Every structure is written in structure tokens, then in C-alpha cells.
């Protein structure tokens, strides 16, 4: 019985660390802000896509490796990485590969949108791991004349726990933590091939 109680306590404490993404978007960290200030949470993005699937286009802007090993939202229309991992450069401060921009991002997106019957006035939802790359992608698209490029502020994996036993783990908000539908086996036509 004591072991069962301990397991329940652990599950409860992990559940308590999961907070919804902020809906007071004025409090977003600067790195997640965009000039057009079009923001949604993962839950809001899912709801928008489900309520109007023919008029909302969801773009997963994470790297190919992230999609392959971490999965992809079922609702995503396509994966077009905003940045790639530079496998020749390691960032020892961030403990990851350096990121380099995908020079084909905007061209590939325009092609995919045209194929699907969308344009620069269509509602676009951009999602990365936690909202930083998607905000950069949305900012770029705003400069290119896209009028409704939203960033999903909590992304696919969510934000990090700031303190306690799970500090540094991505257990706060995000698509996966909200238990929204996703898969390890995305359709081939959604995958980015350079």
C-alpha cells in the first residue's frame, strides 16, 4: 500500500507541474514574440484546426530529426524545418548542435500552400518544440506579406519545469503534455524532403 501511495504522489506532483500555456500573451518572453502579435497555445491551435480544417494550415517547423524521433501532431499539414542542425558544429553552452537557417523555408512553404489551395492571407499556425523557432518563422512570414501567421507559443513539447525534481524537463504545457493527438508515424506526404 505504501508503494502504491508513493506512486500516486509522484504522479500527482508531475501533474501539478504541468501548467497550461499562458494566455496573457503580453507576458511572453521576448524570444517568443512577433511583430504581428498573433499567438495561440497548442490547445487553441488544435481547436482552430479541428473547427475549420479547410481554412487553417498547421506547419511543423521543427527539424527532420525532431519529427522522426519525437513524433508529429496528427493535425499538422506539413513539416518544413525553419532551421537545420549543423552536424559539424557543437554548441557546448547549449549542449546541442548549432542551428542554421533553412534557406528554402519560405519557397517550400509557398509551394506547399499553393498545392493545398492556400495563400498569403490564409491562417497559418507555426509550431516548433517550444515556441521560439516558430516565432522567428512567423516574423519572417510577416515580412514576406503573410497576414495571419500565428506562432504556437508552447510548441510540441512545451516549456521546461523551472524547479524541483523535474527541473529542465519539458513537462509544462505544449501539444504532447496537453494529450493532443500525435504520431510517431507521420504520412510521407507531410515530411520535408530537401
Folded structure, characterized:
The protein has 194 residues and is an alpha/beta fold. It has a single domain (2-190), classed as Rhodanese-like domain (Oxidized Rhodanese, domain 1). It is 31% helix and 19% strand. A five-stranded parallel beta sheet has the order 1-8-7-2-4. It has a two-stranded antiparallel sheet with strand order 3-9. The chain is globular, with a radius of gyration of 17 Å. Residues 1-20 have low confidence and may be disordered.
Name the descriptors:
194 residues, Oxidized Rhodanese, domain 1, single chain, 6 helices, 5-stranded parallel β-sheet
First-last Cα distance: 55 Å
CATH class equals Alpha Beta
SS element count, helices:
6
Q: What is the chain-wise order of helices and strands?
A: HEHEHEEEEHEHEHE
Number of strands: 9
**What percent of the residues sit in helical stretches (DSSP H or I)?**
25-40%
Class by SSE composition: alpha/beta
Quickly give the CATH architecture.
Answer: 3-Layer(aba) Sandwich
Examine the coordinates and then state which fold CATH places here, giving the name of the CATH topology. Answer: Oxidized Rhodanese, domain 1
Query: CATH H level: which superfamily?
Result: Rhodanese-like domain
Average of pLDDT: 90
How would you sum up the major sheet? 5 strands, parallel
Looking at the structure, what is the overall shape? globular
Low-confidence stretches: 1-20
- Round the Cα radius of gyration to an integer and report it: 17 Å
Q: Numbering strands along the chain, what is their spatial order in the largest sheet?
A: 1-8-7-2-4
**In the residues, how many domains can be counted?**
1
Query: Hey, roughly how much beta strand do the residues contain?
Result: 15-25%
